[in-house]
Structures are given as structure tokens and as C-alpha cells.
Amino acid sequence: MPDNDRKLRFETTADLVRELDELEAAQRSRGVVSTGAWSPGQNLQHVARFYKAALDGFGFTLPAPVRFLFRLVLKPIALKRTIRGGLKIPAKARPALQPDEGASFEQGLADLRAQLGRINARERMQQPSPVLGPLSHEEWTELQLRHAELHLGKLRPAGEEAPQG
Question: Is the pLDDT of residue 163 over 70?
């Protein structure tokens, strides 16, 4: 994680929602900026699309031997540690995960809140991961929180200094 990213840790979905509330308040008062290549709206929309894919399906999968290796090696790490940035979304995953070029903060936030609302309404994330294979709803929740830490860590209120590493 680059030094200019905020270090976030979400233990529960409620922690994520609190962070969204804080970012929304900052956006209304002074704006929110991104330390990465994507705009604040794109970061939020991408996190929303990852939730949506876990609920509705990704539309692609990696070959079984690759999933097996990733499941053995990466799954324990991915569920516990904040995911590192810089990974390119594979071409076959872009329809499900790539944010819109001009996604506004408001649209990205609305998209993410809509997906979290589905989970609050007791929908379960049950679709297999195209990388890790089958995951329980609880495992999906952990993975989603780690992924949200990465992308929301790139967002900060405008004018707020970057953390000193």
C-alpha cells in the first residue's frame, strides 16, 4: 500500500458504513480526493461492483487448477490482510468490475449503498469467486472488507494531509 494511502481496518460492515458516512459528509463540505488513478466515484463504484458480483455472479472464472492454487496460497492471506493495489483487472473481468469512466462520487456512493442494502436485507453472497472458488457468506464478507480497505484508503477529504509513513 503506498505511503500516501490511509490505513483502514474494517472489522464489520458497520465499520464500512461509518466510513462511507464520513466520506459523504466530507464530500458535502469540502470534497473528497483520490490518491490513486481512479476518481473517488470510480473507487466507490468498483467496490460496489465487487459486492454485486459476489451476490449475482462474475460472468467468468479462471481454470480449476489456477483456482486451486490461488485457494491454497492466497485465500488465507486475502481474508486477513488488506489487499495490495496495483492489480490490473483482467479483460474478462472488466464487464463485472471496471467502474465507469465518469463515475461521480454520488453515483459510486449510491451504487455501494445499494449493494450493502441488499446484504442488510439478508441477501447472501454465495457466488463462487473466479479466483478463490466457493466462499461462504462470512468469507465473502471478510474479502469484501479487505477490498474496501484498499479502495477507501485511497480517498481522503480535500485538503487533508497525507499520512506520514
Answer: no
Distance CA 2, CA 24 (A): 23
Angstrom distance (rounded) from CA 94 to CA 116: 21
139 versus 164: which is more confidently predicted?
Answer: 139
- Between strands 32-34 and 155-157, the pairing is antiparallel
Largest CA distance in the chain: 50
Q: Which residues contact 142 (CB under 8 A, 6 or more apart)?
A: 79, 80
Residue 27: how many other CB atoms lie within 10 Å: 19
What is the rounded distance in angstroms from the CA atom of residue 125 to the CA atom of residue 150? 20
Tens of pLDDT along 116-156?
999 999 999 999 999 888 999 999 999 999 999 999 999 99
Number of helices and strands in the chain (H, E): 7, 2
Structure-model confidence comparison of residues 85 and 131, the more confident one: 131
Question: In this structure, are residues 34 and 154 in contact, taking their beta carbons and an 8 Å threshold?
Answer: yes
